[in-house]
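[step 3/7] fold_predict: job queued, chain A
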Amino acid sequence: MVRVGIIGASGYGGGELIRLLKAHPGVELVGFSSRKHEGKPLSSAWPQLWDKGLFATLEEVLEQADVVFLALPNGLAMELAPRALKEGKRVIDLSGDYRLPPEVYESWYGIPHKSSGLYREAVYGLPELHRKELGGARLVANPGCYVTATTLALAPLAAEGVLRGAFVVGLSGVSGAGREGEGTFFAEVNENLKPYKVGGVHRHIPEMERNLGRLLAQGRPVRTHGPLGEVRLSFVPHLVPMTRGILVTVEAEVEGNWSQKALDELYQDFYAQEPFVRVTEALPETKGTYASNRVDVKPLFEARTGRVMVFAALDNLVKGMAGQAVQNLNLMLDLPEETALPKEGLWP
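[step 4/7] structure written:
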C-alpha cells in the first residue's frame, strides 16, 4: 500500500483529492495539511467528508508520505518540491510551477522561479498524450481545466499535422477561480456572465500552445521536453454563474478539405483507447461531466462556411484538477489507470 499525502488540502483541489483518495484501494491517505486549518478536524474545511482525521503539519505529511500532492497556489510548489524530492518522495504538483520552461513561466506568471533546474525533470501530466512518460516520473506537472479541455479538443488535428491556429471561447464555473477567488461573490456572479483576461494575456495560453506544438512536431506519444511546432491561439475565457464545469467552443484553423465524416473518423480513431475521453454525437454540456473524470468532445464541420469547430466539456475540479492528478498517480504506480476515478457524472 503506497502512502500518499496532500499539502494544501483546504482548497478545492485538495478537497477533491481527499474525496477521491479515500476511496482508492491502492493507496493510504496518511495525512493532509493546511496552514489555515492545522490541528482542526477535516470537517472544519470540508463538511461533506466523513473523516475524524485532523489537519496535520506540512512536516508530518512529508515524513509519512511516499507520494505528495502539492495543491498550492502558484509560486509555492517550487519551494517545496525540491525538499520533497530530496527526501525521496514523488511529487504531483497541481500548480503551474513546472508546466512551462522557467523563463516562459516568469514572463507569464510574473513570479521568479526558485527551482528552475527541476523543470527538465518534470513530466507533463496529461495522460492522453504523455502516458508513456508518466510511469517513471518523480515530478509530475498536473495541467489545469482550461488547458486540458482545449488541448484535448484540438489534439487530433494537431497530431494529424493540419492545425495552424484556433480561436477558443472558454466558459468556467466559479470554483475554477479557487476558494478565495477574487470577483466570485454571489452578488457579483449571480445572473451575470463576463469575459476576463482577454487580449492574449491569459497565462494558460503558452501552455496550450506548447501542448499542441508538441503534437504537431512529434505526433503521439508526446515527450515533454521534445521538439515543438508553432501554433497560435486566441483565448477568450468567461466566468459563468455555476459552481463547476468547463466548456470550450473552438474554431480551428486547419489545412485541407474536411467533412463531418472525416472529422468523426479522425476523433474516434484518436480517442478509441482512451478511458476518459468520449467522442459524443450530441454537443457536450457541463452537467453531463459533473463530478466525473470524463471529457466529452464533439468535432463539427460547418458546411455553409467550411469551418471546423470543436466542443469539449469537463468538470474543472475532477478531470481539470484532482481527478487528473489521481489518474497520473495511477500511471506512476503502475496501477490500473481508471482506479478510483468515476466515468459517470451526477444528474440532475
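[step 5/7] annotate
The CA atoms of residues 330 and 336 lie 6 Å apart.
The mean pLDDT is 97.
exit 0
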